């Protein structure tokens, strides 16, 4: 689900140095940060629509606003 360099920066699990370097890259590179944000936003829209479509196709009701459920 994650696309390295498109909507995320993927680093090896447990590699603290690689994680720190990725965070530093995003912090220092405005263009990279903007590209990742746009890619993540687009991926979220695509995935949300796909999940909702499968949910409704299986006969589940539309998802209610959580604020109307919690009283």
Report what the structure shows.
The structure is a single chain. The mean pLDDT is 82. Helix content is 63%, strand content 0%. It has 71 residues and is mainly α. The chain is built from three helices and no strands. The termini are far apart. The chain has helices spanning 16-28, 30-57, 66-69.
Considering the chains and any ligands shown, give keywords for the structure.
single chain, 71 residues, mainly alpha, 63% helix
End-to-end separation in angstroms reads: 35 Å
Query: Helix proportion of residues, in percent?
Result: 55-70%
Q: Characterize the largest beta sheet: strand count, sense, and whether it forms a barrel.
A: none
Question: Unreliable runs, pLDDT <50, ≥5 residues?
Answer: none
As a percent range, the share of strand residues is: under 5%
Number of strands: 0
Number of helices: 3
Class inferred from helices and paired strands: mainly alpha
Radius of gyration over alpha carbons? 17 Å
What overall form do the CA principal axes indicate? elongated
Helix-strand pattern: HHH
Question: What value does the average pLDDT take?
Answer: 82
What is the gist of this entry?
By secondary structure, this protein is mostly helical. The protein has helices spanning 16-28, 30-57, 66-69.
């Amino acid at each position: 689900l994650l696309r390295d360099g498109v909507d995320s920066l993927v680093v090896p699990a447990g590699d603290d140095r690689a994680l720190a370097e990725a965070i530093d890259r995003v912090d220092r590179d405005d263009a990279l940060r903007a590209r990742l944000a746009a890619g993540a936003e687009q991926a979220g829209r695509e995935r949300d629509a796909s999940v909702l479509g499968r949910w409704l196709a299986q006969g589940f009701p539309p998802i209610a606003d959580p604020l109307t459920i919690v009283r």
